[in-house]
Records
---
Amino acid sequence: MFTREFCIILSAALVAGHSSAQQSDTEEVPRTSAEVPERLPETGERAPESPPQSSAQTIENIDADAFVFGVGQPATPEEIAAIDIDVMPDGTGLPEGSGTFAEGEQLYQEYCAACHAEDLGGISDLGAARLIGGRGTLDSDSPVKTVESYWPYASTLFDYVHRAMPMDAPGSLDADEIYAINAYILGRAGILDEDTELNAETYSEIVMPNVDGFVPDPRPDTQ
Ligand code: HEC
């Protein structure tokens, strides 16, 4: 009995509170309606409304000081340098250092062969790609895409190995080691003479077999 009465009193109080809250809302925010555009004299149709101003037009009015969140800190030049390692097709970004085919052969066996196989043929069970071979297969029914057959620029090999390999310790190799490993891979691919010492200058001169195998994307939004 007590519970039932209590419930009725409670729900009555809730209803009262709810409706009074609603009431004060409608009192404080008067209803408005958008202005109807003028009719055009020539056609009698309504003139198109001007589009709303985009945030891009008003961004200069934003007060940057109002958006200081009090967390984080500016990146130091050292922190930026540690991740600013991209290498471009023209050789921009290649670091100082050098390496040879012979050095690379040893390093490859130590750091890469476990996944990419001693003969650079890859280990498909591990998902580790075959690195060499496959030239002339790209327009066949079973194309074999490798660094040798497919990649248009050697710069990508430097960049990729530097940032992503060995897969279990990415970023652990220094510039000399990467030049050496690349000299070995490109040497085994028949792209580079085994006697060539790789450094930023000699690396930039490498021409990959598939350099002309790509066409520019003509869609305007990719230009
Ligand atoms: C622990 C296994 C492992 C080790 C060690 C390793 N890789 Fe890889 N590597 C992979 C896997 C897996 C992929 C495929 C990654 C993907 O598709 O995202 C790959 C991809 C690559 C590719 C891209 C191939 C392509 O055609 O897409 C290159 C080049 C490469 N590795 C070079 C190296 C080199 C050089 C080393 C030694 C410094 C190395 N890898 C060590 C597992 C490994």
---
Amino acid sequence: MKILLYNPDNGVTRNFMPHLWMFLLKALTPPEHDVLLIDGNAQALDEEGLARFVREHEIGLVGIGAMTRMVAKAYRMADAARAAGVPVVMGGPHVTEAPDEALGRDGGPRHADAVALGEADETWPQIVADAAQGRLKETYAPVDAAGKERKPSLQPYPSIPWESMDLDQFNIIPSFLAPMLGRVGGGWKTFRIIPVESGRGCPYGCEFCTVTGFFGDSIRFRTNESVVDELLRLKARAKSEGGQVAVFFIDDNFAINIKRTKSLLRDIIAAGAQVYWTAQISANLLRDEELLDLIQASGGKWIFIGMESIDPANLDDVNKNFIKPGEYGAVLERLARRNLLAITSFIFGLDNDTPGVSLRTLNQLRQWPAGLPVFGQLTPFPSTPLYARLEAAGRLTRPKHWLDFAPYQMAHTPLKMTSAQAQAEVRQAWTDSYSPAAISRAVNSLSQSPVWLRISLLLGRLSFRGIYFPQMGRWAWLKVAAQNRRVIIKLVGAAIKLWLKSWREGRAFRRALKKIDDSTHGGVFMKDRKLQIECGRCGKTMSEILTEVEARTIRDGIGPVYRHCDCCEKTTGWIEAAAERDATEGAPQHPAAARSTSRSSYDRPVAHGQERLATTSERDEMEAMLYEHDAVQKKK
Ligand code: B12
Ligand code: SF4
């Protein structure tokens, strides 16, 4: 059977990242079925287009997942698929919270043949089997034989074959820039943000949030190995394409168990599985300096912090008083010291908010290191304690706001201002934070920071602007670029200067290397060659074709090369085998070789195929060795 999994567009922004559920369910589908994926945010589709697609591809089952804000579109698409004669199953947070709506049991029209409640990891294979036999049930709930809700343990966790998936639609690099960017740094032909979960669940139970109700308050984690393996595969794919990858750890609170997070980050570092990553972490968990060091060392770049309000009374009201506005500044300083950018999220329209809340918040934000602020209005999602409270108090002005979705429109009246005022506060905050002057001010405030951080902040600000101000087409982007041309030109200039400097340094470095080669080995390493190497950990030997740089690296004792060792069952550092060393005995020895043959120093586990460029400090170290070597040669 052919299955189409479809996620509707949100109608406001283009998607920068695939939705995990589709890829996860595809990985969990029994192999005899063929699964096609369409993310409406990346590949626009209307009702007619969907009906045509299911007919042309002879789809036997359509699966649709949606958040509340996209559910109206999801229903329209489901109606179109059903009208084309294909059964529809719907899942995700909204239908879990309001299943009767999708099934037409609340007096409204029916949109789905079946709904998958809650986490569908274990029910999905059954749904597919039932659909294949034409006997779909109305409701699938993850329960055990006694009818008790069962949450997937995430151990084992399915291996999502990211390396072979078609991810073309999620490449953020525009095609006209790809050839040029392919030559920059380690290659930027492609840049994708991939969702990876390392755990599920959050015990905090904030009043407006659906997570504690949906995923539960017991937290489950994948094994470190399974997460590290996924990162290594993603990294290998990006490398093979001459591109880059960033990972969004979509856990609701990535550091909810700090000990576990630290151990995961240590394992990522040990395996050389660092990629750029972002995650959501609540402010109370960002006090731990060691955690922050590990975040930085493991590739962390952007941390999303749900700050919600600078007013403690508001946090009390929504059961989120475990975070303290008084310590936001310190948290952000700690992140800034490590070049980590914070995405700070605020909610307006809380019960203690009064007109002027956006200005007060913006004034506070200006005291803190620049980051990426985002603003929204308090939204009562179905089945949340907030929804129940407002409903009981008769304060819901649009109880089924999702059926008539309008971006940034309130669905209830706050206590100390009107809905219109709350909406105006949200608009003011976005306008003030994302004007060309504000963007330029933010980027310039990082003038003492590395250029890449300033570029990251600029690109972040330009993209995040689109969350509120529609900028979906190429023209809209050109307009934004033109408005922000001053800061863009300034940064491009700084980046070119830096690139020229590192290119000149690289040329000098290559010359120095060549000089050593010529004097030490008569230039024999100018081409790829086969060498006997031995595992620095267990001593196993093998014959391996090394690149010029690798051969130089181990011959000159600058460092090991990294390969998988079958004996050690992991990637280890390999050095020149004793037999090879004996064969070249008599050749002038690099002074660094003697001190760098200590086995333990070769045991730096970097994954197979994950060889990387030297870091600045490693390069400095190598350069020091080379100059030392030059000096010895000159004396001779
Ligand atoms: C990643 C994420 C995002 C990304 C979305 C992009 C993306 N490509 O993923 C970003 C950061 C952009 C985002 C933004 C927002 N998000 Co968000 N987001 C999440 C987050 C953290 C993870 C989603 C995820 O991948 N989960 C892991 C997967 C495996 O779980 P899942 O999607 O629920 O899927 C499982 C089941 O639901 C089921 N399932 C899902 N779909 C389907 C379909 C079928 C057919 C079947 C059978 C089963 C099934 O099977 C899956 C496996 O068990 C969730 C919280 C969470 N932990 O889920 C919030 C969450 C989904 N977001 C939420 C909200 C409110 C928002 C925003 C509206 C916030 C705001 N105020 O701006 C925006 C709106 C975005 C937009 N413009 O459309 C709410 C949604 C609540 C609701 N009832 O709709 C959530 C639940 C968080 C919360 N605090 O309550 N979000
Ligand atoms: S900490 Fe975040 S995920 Fe957890 S309940 Fe609060 S808002 Fe939801």
